[in-house]
Structures are given as structure tokens and as C-alpha cells.
Amino acid sequence: MSEHLATITWQRNAANFLDDRYSRAHRWTFDGGTDVPASSSPHVVPLPMSDAAGVDPEEAFVASLSSCHMLWFLALARKQGLVVERYRDEAIGTMGRNAAGKLAMTRVTLRPAVMFGGEDRPDRAQLDALHEAAHAQCFIASSVLTEVRCTPVFAAEE
């Protein structure tokens, strides 16, 4: 079992809190020292109470799923003797109503494009199998109710 630390810090800074016009900008600080500006999404809380430059929880959720999938994909590809030169995923999270009628991140679609080097290059079936295996191993995907789809771009399609 392991623990992972994130410190979330927000301060009112003399804004009138009760009129609902306070800033939602805050900071995420991680145990390695990385400090990230964060905010509510401007899609949820309008500007100027949100900070569009900050990472919002919905974006972080999508990025977390994508990152976990990628890390497993890289590990599995290496174990198969495949050399990955580049991996890029333009993942999309979709907000909607879940079965209980609550607003939720109902679907995340991963769209990884992987470039391979070296002698061995996977065919489409091997690539799909690698992504399926990465999804099955991803801790984050195993932790959420959100539907996680993977629609990889085959190198020949780039």
C-alpha cells in the first residue's frame, strides 16, 4: 500500500465570500515540490471567479486517466521489445448526467498516437492488444465509474 500526497491551498484575499463572487483560483502542491495553479473550470464557474489559466479538476481527471494509461502502455511495450519514440494523447472528458441524474464525468476518450522506432513495429491488432492491456492495468481507470474508451490512432493513420 502506498500513499500519495497533494496539498490544496485557497485563500479568500478579502473578497466578499457571501456574494458568491470570490475567486476559485487555488494551488496544488505535490510531495515532490511541484506547485500547480488550479481553478474551477470556466465552464462551471464563470470568469472572473475562475482562472482559465489554472488546471481545473475535470482536466486533471482526464489527464490522470491518460497519464496512467500511457505509463502502463510504455511499460508493456518495453516488455514486448518494442521501442516507443513518441506518445501523444489528446484525451477528451465528457460531462453529462449519470444513472442517478447527477452531473458527472461520464466518459473519457483516450486518443493516443504512438510512434515506434527500432526493428519491430506492431500491427493494428498488436497495438489494440497493448492498449487493452494498459487499460486493464491502469490504477486510475480501475478506481472510477467513468466509462474510459481508447481509440488509438494507428501509425499509418498519422
Rg (C-alpha, Å): 19 Å
Beta content: 25-35%
CATH architecture of the largest domain: 2-Layer Sandwich
What's the CATH H-level homologous superfamily of the largest domain?
Answer: K homology (KH) domain
Number of domains: 2
Number of helices: 2
- The average pLDDT value, as a whole number, equals 95
Query: Could you give the count of β-strands?
Result: 8
| Shape designation | elongated
- Report the end-to-end length measured between terminal Cα atoms: 40 Å
Q: Helicity level, as a percent range? A: 10-25%
Structural commentary:
With about 160 residues, the chain is an alpha+beta fold. The protein folds into 2 domains: about 1-55, no CATH class; about 55-155, 2-Layer Sandwich (GMP Synthetase, Chain A, domain 3). It has helices at about 55-80, 125-135; strands at about 5-10, 25-30, 35-40, 85-90, 90-95, 105-110, 110-115, 145-150. It has a 3-stranded antiparallel β-sheet, with no helix packed on it. The chain has a 3-stranded mixed β-sheet with strand order 5-6-8. Strand 5 and strand 6 (about 105-110) form a beta hairpin. Helix 1 packs across helix 2. The longest helix is centred in the middle third of the chain and has 23 residues, at about 55-80. The chain is elongated, with a radius of gyration of 19 Å. The model has no long low-confidence stretch (mean pLDDT about 95).
Concise account of the structure shown:
The protein is an alpha+beta fold and 158 residues long.
SSE inventory with pairings:
Layout: E1 6-9, E2 26-30, E3 35-38, H1 57-79, E4 83-89, E5 92-97, E6 103-110, E7 112-117, H2 124-137, E8 147-150
Parallel strand pairs: 6-8
Antiparallel strand pairs: 1-2, 2-3, 4-7, 5-6
